[in-house]
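Re: weekly structure request thread

Next one in the queue (323 aa):
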Amino acid sequence: MAIDIEALKAGNSRALAKAITLVESKRVEHRTEAQLLLEQLLPSTGNSIRIGITGIPGVGKSTFIEAFGLYLLSQGKRVAVLAVDPSSPIAGGSILGDKTRMEMLSRSKDAFIRPSPSEGSLGGVAQKTRETMLLCEAAGYDVILVETVGVGQSEYEVASMVDFFMVLMLPNAGDELQGIKKGIIELADALVINKADGESINLAQQTRRHYENALHLLRHNTFWTPQVMSCSAIKNENIEAIWGMISGFKIDATKNGSLQDKRSRQAREWMNKLLHEMLDMKLTQNPEVRELLPKLNEKVTQGETTPYLAATKLIDLLFKPGI
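Done, posted below.
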């Protein structure tokens, strides 16, 4: 699959879409070709700010992303919106109507909206999204918004691939973390209370104070304390202030080196995760291992051998000379 690299780097959306199709392909020859393409493009990546956005159903995530994206476009930015949905069963993902959710944003030539890739290949959805993010950066997008669509692990997956992780909340003080796991809150660089309008303004202020008190003990690193802000996406209120906060974070994190440190750590951790997955795949594909595994499972179950010795026998098969 021939990809026009120069056209992609010039921001050609057709070349970008073709490159993403290559990256998302499950064919082995396409996987190799995609990795060579990504390696060629690496010098042109890393110039964006990568922002993760999550929130429970009903929090107004699509409305917020569209309002935020449109504001960024008004500031001369190019914006890409990617989705991570591990629960998506079909190719093309389940981004709930995809561009129809963000109709105004999707009309702009400077916005790119991509649904979640399908599951079932090495690295899963998160791997494809990481690689798509790099392609968007090479194509000149300044802001990459990575949103969670499913529930469960997707928040952790997104937090592990972005520079800044934002959790959208409802103006509902006292509702204990609003169904969001405590661990997700601890990953957040900012909590943004959406729908702070009309009769909910006072409640939003209470919620903000509640979370400010809860978060003041959390400090992600030496320079950043998680922020709590409120906005009304539907009324376009305080969107500018949220971008100002994120811009300030990027400036400081770039100056003190923590942004590059974080990205380097994320890349190392992802390589190690892929290494484990590849070894596991090699094991399951090895015919001798497949034959011996049920026998060893039975021996371990019956107490005839130790789990350590059984695992060692399987690994020795994988690394036999000539294998």
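The two ends are 31 Å apart (CA to CA). The CA atoms of residues 64 and 227 lie 17 Å apart.
Next request, please.
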